[in-house]
Amino acid sequence: MNEISREEYLASVRRGREKLTPEDMAAIQFEMAMPSMFYEKSPAEREALWQRFLALRDQIGADAAALMIRFELANGQR
Q: What is the model's pTM?
């Protein structure tokens, strides 16, 4: 098996990250923050939650927006 050093791995991750757009990063962060019940929703419901996240993100920031959506999902509001 071809071994790669930690430094080489981190450099590879940095190069990959540089290719991502801000929108790509937002999508990745959003999906990582969502609980499993998010993925049980229909594609239309997931898209609606994504659009809500984008609107909230512009007002209160990405972390707070993701947290609000998580609370809504946990409380059955969505």
A: 0.68
CA separation for the pair 14, 48 (Å, rounded) = 31
Q: Which of 57, 73, 52 is nearest to 25 (CA)?
A: 57
CA 57/CA 19 separation, integer angstroms = 22
Dihedral-angle region of residue 31 (phi above 0 means left; psi in -120 to 50 means alpha; beta otherwise): alpha
How far is 54 from 48, CA to CA, in rounded Å?
10
Closest of 42, 21, 33 to residue 61, by C-alpha:
33
Residue 23's pLDDT band (cuts 50, 70, 90)? confident
